[in-house]
Amino acid sequence: MTRAYGMMREVLISALQALSRHAAMVLAVGVFAGLVLPDLAGWMRPLLPSAVAGLLFLALLRIDWQELSRHLSRPLIVALLCAWFLIATPVLMWAAVELFAVEKGLATALILAAACPPIVSGPAMALLLRLDAPLMLVSVAGASLLVPVTVVAVSSHLIGVDLRIDAFELFLRLAFLIGGCVLTAVIARRLLGQARLLRCKNAFDITSVMLLLVFAVAIMDGVTVLVAQAPWHVLGFILAAFVANMLLQLLGTGVTAAMGRRSALTVGFASGNRNMGLLLAVLPADSAPDVLLFFALGQLPIYILPVVLGPAYRRWLSGA
Predict the structure, then answer these.
(1) Which residues contact 318 (CB under 8 A, 6 or more apart)?
(2) In whole angstroms, what is the distance from residue 35 CA to residue 244 CA?
(3) Can you give the residue range of the structural domain that contains 276?
(4) Of 148, 111, 153, 156, which Cα lies nearest the Cα of 290?
(5) What's the pLDDT score for residue 15?
(6) Residue 62: which residues within 8 A CB-CB, separation 6 or more?
């Protein structure tokens, strides 16, 4: 019995390690699983907040805190990055949708998406893609704490929409999430020690992939019904989501090229992959249906593009 248990344990560990090595592909499969198994997506939806907190906590456990301190010691760079994410990109998106006369619902969604901070799971995904996780964390934390103020201004001045968001309440929720994860990670790092953290690297990788998979499946809750109701409309929104994601990644990488290849690619990744789920959670129930639809479909490039771009990242970074 003991031998059989040991064999099963080894097989399970090997399988999980294989999933970790192919994390990007697993996440892409998770998105499609959420689409074809809507009941599973609905069941996992309540797990979203816990998955986000877990991902942030694990990223804080694993990143190089000396590198994080180096980024924090350059407040001007952090401020400029936040201005890029929260002000410059929505203004550029507004100019683009005006230039190409994009219809109102999609235009509103594109501008609001560009006004969101980078995804909270960004540091975990940066670790998987070998990008600059500390820089990603600084970007996520700074932009997430400022977005309650900036997104209200963007929505009212660029698109004339009153989001009816309590900015202070949103700030407190985000500060509690980020601050709680930071405090817990500091305590855990002290208790575990650096040597044990290094030994647990594979376990952290596997856990991060599992949490990302939960997030990828759960965020698709409700999308299957929309696909069945208006497939061509949905297809157009999916195309717009991929184009917007890629263009913002290219712009973000280009404007920060002077920071070095790894940092520029990290900013580019953060620029294209925005935390639309943040607004999705606080938007009024009577918000424009097209906005809600785009925010859900906008998750597809977030989880599919790393599969496509992963080899390119490795190639570009190997020459850095």
Answers:
(1) none
(2) 22
(3) 26-304
(4) 111
(5) 56
(6) 127, 133, 197, 201, 204
For residue 274, the cross-strand partners are 118
pLDDT of residue 179: 83
Are 178 and 56 within 8 A, CB to CB?
yes
**CB distance 147 to 278 below 8 Å:** yes
Q: What are phi and psi of 274, to 5 degrees?
A: -105, 155
Tens-digit pLDDT profile for residues 13-37 = 565 565 656 666 777 777 778 888 8
Separation between Cα atoms, residue 215 and residue 295, nearest integer Å: 14
Domain annotation covers residue 314 = no
Tokens, residue 25: 């592909």
Report how far residue 141's alpha carbon sits from residue 179's, in angstroms, rounded to the nearest whole number. Answer: 9
Cα-based distances in Å from 4 to 11, 16, 211 = 11, 18, 28
For residue 251, give the amino acid letter: L
- 33 in a structural domain: yes
CATH number at residue 84: 1.20.1530.20
The total number of structural domains that make up the chain: 1
Q: What is the pLDDT of residues 182-238, one digit of tens each?
A: 899 889 988 988 888 888 877 888 888 888 888 878 878 777 887 788 888 889 999
Q: Is 116 helix (H, G, I), strand (E, B) or coil?
A: coil
Examine residue 249 and state whether it is found in any structural domain, yes or no. Answer: yes
**Does 15 map to a domain?**
no
